[in-house]
Amino acid sequence: WVPHELSEKNLNDRIIICTSLLAHNKIEPFLDRIITGYEKWITYENIIRKRAFYEPGKPAPSTSKPKLSLNKRMLCIWWNIRRPMHFELLKPNERLNSERHCQQFDKLKTALQEKRPAMFNRKDIILLHDNARPHAALGTRQKAAELG
Length: 148
Prior knowledge:
Number of helices: 5
Shape: extended
CATH topology of the domain at 32-46 and 69-148: Nucleotidyltransferase, domain 5
InterPro entries: RNaseH_sf, Transposase-MT_Hybrid, Transposase_1
Protein name: Transposase
GO molecular function, one term: single-stranded DNA binding
Distance between the termini: 25 Å
Organism: Bombyx mori (Silk moth)
């Protein structure tokens, strides 16, 4: 939860927490172990524009604004402190569900084995993502537990 306006106490509490986390990271590094997952809808419209030549001095005909796009794809991306670890662009208008999320965990596991084998072998990965339904489903939580 994030308040829209921070009070002086909220601000001081956040400074204390951040300082504490940075101190803890010096003793036992954990920021390198965080893998963050996020989904974002990307809307698009494939507009075909044709070339046209107009007589000098005459105005070009006006073109109407394109309608709101109904075409959208979901980008699912997983990254750590250094770089993206895995991403997937779902089919047009396809939504993320628990089963698909579990498949992404398998692909993330493969990516971790290739890109960060030391992290993968330690089995101390910290997964960070919100509590959307596909993330909070029992099957997804069990699959996430296998990773870290």
